[in-house]
Every structure is written in structure tokens, then in C-alpha cells.
Design a protein that fits this description.
73 residues; mainly alpha; two-stranded antiparallel ribbon; 37% helix
Amino acid sequence: MYWTLELASYLEDAPWPASKDELIDFAIRCGAPIEVIENLQELEEEEEIYEGIEDIWPDYPTKEDFLFNEDEY
């Protein structure tokens, strides 16, 4: 399983919290690439409820990871 920012962006509007099956269904309905669906199918826990993309991809970059000062603009 591998994630990129582009692949993870397809799950930004997912109905969080969600189960694995709900996320797969959402990815199919929104036309996400097959890689997103394959990554979701590789999740181990069938019944686990995921609160956000960070539960799926622990290394998901947050705003703090970028050196961008919003106050300057």
C-alpha cells in the first residue's frame, strides 16, 4: 500500500468517520483512481471506524509540515 498527496486528496471529502467498506464505496462513487481503491482494500481491519485520513496514512502531511506563513498573504 502506498499513498501520495494526489491519491489521498480523493478522500478529503469522504464521510468521516467511516468504515473500510464506506470508504471503498465513496472512492468508487467519486471516480477515484484504482490505486485508491486498492489501497483501501488492503486495510486490515474490516470493522474499524476511521476518523480521518491520518488513521489510514499516519504520515499524512499536515499544515505544520509545510513552510508557508499564511499571515504574509
